[in-house]
Queue: 4 jobs
Job 1
Amino acid sequence: MARWSQQELRVHVPPAELDSDAPRVEAEEARRLISVLRIEGGERVHLFDGTGRSRKAVLRRGGRHLFCEPAGPVMTAPAPRAVITLAFGQVKKPALEFILQKGTELGVHRFQPIECARSVAAWEEDRAGRKRERWQELCLHAARQCERDDTPELRAPVPLAGWLDTPRAACFAAIERSQAPRLDMDALPSLAGEVGLLTGPEGGFEPAEMERILAAGCAPVSLGSRILRAETAAVVLAALVLYGLQAFSPEKNP
Ligand code: SAM
């Protein structure tokens, strides 16, 4: 018979706070809990620090501040068997945010924007720090929503050639309008180590880039006969691979 688990209130605290005797909830998180969720104190919660560690606790309220009384030891999530990097040709902000949010929910471990010949969006270096912080925050919100204790890392863009030169256990590149085969779902559960997933920008890869991708040993895969938007392709490829890896099973890609 099916068993249902109870939804728990999830609260983010910085890594150093998780280990303390009275973990303090940061101002913004406290505001969300007090004004949106109407926390009064005394609630049992699941604390997580975004690095894969968590702890059960009881919330204590002092005005607009929230502290926690630990109710258990610090737990560390097991390291994933396969570490998934989702690399995608740079896209504009709404598409990037879509990829970050959905990719986090699916279980991607790292996001890597790639500078391609046909990339439409440039990473504005001057404001990149602040923006990256905001996008990391978006990943944190998605992690809390989907009950992940770790938050994926968003890396600064790198040129395609540089990314392809990095050795990894496996790499899959989504190539449209080609004879590329579909993903071999039966082979996915045995994947381990660093796994790269690559999708192109809105304009697609240039022929020279495609040759480079194949020469680097990336396995070309088709996502079907329709031409998907760049952000859809990135999320679909991640969903298929993570599903194949059984990341959705109770063990969550251990
Ligand atoms: N401008 C290209 C064209 O019209 O041929 C389409 C590029 S598509 C919008 C952006 C990226 O999504 C592609 O580079 C590819 O990585 C991926 N993609 C989209 N549809 C796909 C499909 N059916 N199979 C594999 N990859 C696909």
Job 2
Amino acid sequence: RQHLLTVDSLNRERVDHLLRVATRMEPIAQRRQVTRVLEGAVLGNLFFEASTRTRVSFNAAFCRLGGSVCDTTGFTFSSMAKGESLYDTSRVMSGYCDAIVMRHPDQGSVAEFAAATNVPVINGGDGPGEHPSQALLDIYTIDKEFQRLGKSLGGAHILLTGDLKYGRTVHSLIKLLSLYGPLRITLVSPPGLEMPSQLVDLVTSRGHHVEQRNSLASDFSDLDVVYATRIQKERFTDEMNESFQGLSNDFMVNRDFLDQRCSEHTIVMHPLPRDSRPGANDLNVDLNGDPRLAIFRQTDNGIPMRMAIFATLLEVDELVEKEMRPVRW
Ligand code: CP
């Protein structure tokens, strides 16, 4: 069985396959059809860090394929609170479950867990490491939005902004984007929160044009996608918290930025959650209701893409279309 721990395991062909399978899942995700292809299968959903979208949408996706889900959230509800190791937890869970989704605050921990099991493990986010299913649903969203607008990824201009150092979604996304294109990628972050240089080097070596800046105050009239991210304060040291306290609103994606610097066709994405507390500066609520704001279309796309990931890892992806029937409710 294969795992999904990092997007490094995916080439263009595998990503395109997942996009096609996700499209086939849409009638189920939109609650017009049902299937039972995973009847009898049990998912272990192990979340040792806060989550709404990833935890609930993986759960819903597995249920919509006919499977059942066991959820564990937080260290206090796991025997890891009593000192049990990742290795032992993994061996135990393998006996109970047919697939496991895991989120953990430590980078590399999900891979360590996966090494001890023979059931497919999906990385639901490992600290500042990677978040491969989020990046896959992001590519699926970009593809759908571009189809609607009559655009293609070839030659597109994509802006990734916010905390590019600790934001695991952008670490996975920039690698997946680099399979397409050629692209123009602009990276904008506060000083000290830049994209890791090895990822910039990788994308550049694949023939993409990458620019890095510390301000959004530029002309983005040719921009196709702005992908904003939250400042990951929970990953900061006390010293960093102090130095980023006065972070200005220069990195805020809001109506002024979109109307004055971008175009009427620029799509706004964000992995969410966006920080709605005073002083937060990622994505302003003044864009709510603007058709360019794709964030809730993006969250909806999490269901068909996560269904596609399960169906492919558990090798029922060719069965789903044959075993679909209309809903009775
Ligand atoms: N995008 C994302 O991972 O959201 P959650 O933290 O709510 O799962």
Job 3
Amino acid sequence: KKKAFIFDLDGVIVDTAKYHFLAWQKIAAQLGIDFTHEHNEQLKGVSRIRSLEIILAIGNITITQEEKDNLLLKKNEDYLTYIDKMDESEILDGVMQVLHYLKQNNQPIALGSASKNARPILEKVKILSYFDAIVDGNDVTNAKPDPEVFVQAAKKLNMPSEGAIVFEDSVAGVQAANAAQMVSVGIGEKAVLHEAHYNFNNFTEIDTTFLQNLVNK
Ligand code: B16
Ligand code: MG
């Protein structure tokens, strides 16, 4: 039996949230906004443009479209300097074991990320070859919690949406998976991700019995 296994990227495979934070903080400082770690939580799973809009709302600031475009460009250029230094040591604990197990058992694997930088990141941490399909911020028109990114991922794998398994660290991502009739596995704080069908703090808590049961369901 086969099931589509779909992974979010930021916060699930690697902790790039810390780099997004550093890059956004510079933009915010430039706008005179004090951007905190708590604020950064609101940006998880959210698209780049939406992230900027949230920051502008925090500072109660209005700017022109041209200024927005400049800031988005600047933010990404800075973010890319952090990405450039990444290597396989940044893969979060337990992720490789799960990817290995799924590969060994011929389960279809996809990435479903809001990031437009997903491919270079997977290349940097040297796991691009594990993925049979990649759907990222360049492919979708509707951001999470819209199910589009995960529905497209299942389609690319030639698998049904129903019963597909999604690993997510954001509330919007869990909601997107649920809306697609998929099985949502929350990675992170249960209190935050309580809408998920299953909850784990990280991948080291996920064992092969759990994965096999999902396949057989
Ligand atoms: P980029 P995910 C998301 O990735 C991040 O969680 C979110 O914080 C970020 O704004 C978004 O990607 C866009 O990223 O600027 O690289 O296109 O969690 O969906 O893998
Ligand atoms: Mg994420």
Job 4
Amino acid sequence: MGKIVIAIDGYSGCGKSSTAKAVAKDLGYTYIDSGAMYRAATLHFLNSYLSPSNPHDVEKGLKDLEIEFHPNPDSGEQETYLNGLNVEKEIRTMRVSENVSNLAKEKEIRKVLVAQQKKLGKSKGVVMDGRDVGSVIFPDAELKVFMTADLETRAYRRQQELLAKGDLVDLEEIQKNLAERDQIDSTREEGPLIKVEDAVEIDTSNLNFAEQVAQIVDLAQQKI
Ligand code: C5P
């Protein structure tokens, strides 16, 4: 049986990461969270007091930026490391969410992360989620999915996710952040969020988690 590349793009907070992770597990594929890399880069710039819109800062910030994924020894799930430190939890905080899209629109930063993402997916049997996976990172992916859901649903789901981690965040604050990120991500010059022609659109507003995973696994099995 041949292995394929699955690209999952879509708006912020529509469950791409958890869905992609479950699809990868089901198929025995590797899951790569491209958004985690932009989040880790954002944390690095914030912690180093560097501005992603200042070219000198960008040069400095990229010089000592090392992002890796390593499996958690208990769950086996991939976790994000920034310069050797596990930052999986910290990159999901509102502090990072509020700054990530402004970093992700910078051309020089995208160039570096996109090159790393292409390398990570060189061998087939990969599910990657993000904003430009089907358009820029893997334009030849055998299966491209574009996930959507209405803003209220997305904000509510994200709130529940944060709550499960012990973070109580106001629904309105989450909704505002998701809308802002969508706006910046869709209108930037470099690798904007778009639905490519050959992507299958899945609106998850009225689907439960198991249903959205099953739909993508089904689509993948038709291609394998
Ligand atoms: O997927 P996630 O919501 O964690 O992504 C965080 C942010 O990273 C997005 O809002 C977007 O600005 C950026 N991103 C990107 N390209 C990707 C993945 C994420 O620009 N492939």
